[in-house]
Amino acid sequence: MAGVLVFGDVAGGQLVPVAMEAAAAGAGLAEALGEPLLGALIGDDLDAAAEQFRGGFSALYLIGGAHYRPYTATAYMNAAQAAIDACSPSVVLFPHTLETREWVPRLAAHLDTGLVMDCIVLAAEGSDLVVTKPVYGGGVLGEFVVRGAPRMATIRSGVFGERGPSATVAC
User: Fold this and answer.
1) Which end of the chain is less packed: N or C, by CB atoms within 10 Å?
2) Model confidence band, residue 167 (pLDDT cutoffs 50, 70, 90)
3) Which residues fall within 8 angstroms of residue 166, CB to CB, at 6 or more apart?
4) pTM
5) Which pLDDT does position 162 carry in this prediction?
6) Contact 163/24 with Cβ under 8 angstroms?
7) Quick check: 169 pLDDT over 50?
8) How far is CA 37 from the centre of its chain?
């Protein structure tokens, strides 16, 4: 099953705000690619976060348990890989947080796939995923075509609007 899989980030049982921005970016990208939008959450005490994150996804994968507290990169990486294996997405998006900066590059290396971090623009050009991110301290914007399967990116906080019932994101 192809699709755009968006991972949310949970802190203290609550969804972090950038997770909704990642969902908004994923919704626009899924529409542009003509693929379903899928969601995933990893952590302990996911009930409230799942309610916040639920809307608009074809499927929401909840990977929870007490063993995700305290946080360890290896546990999150293994959980994310299980979700990716379960749905075989073409694109995987993550919020750009302290934790995802640690484990998402390890996951991409383990999957032998492309990853661009701290993205401010996502675009679908045909079947290609083209992302833009600041480089050289933000003095230059670099545009990258992400290769591999699945293609992966992290989303910078404060760039994409939060997804709501009527929110749309142009890609």
Assistant:
1) N
2) very low
3) none
4) 0.92
5) 72
6) yes
7) no
8) 11
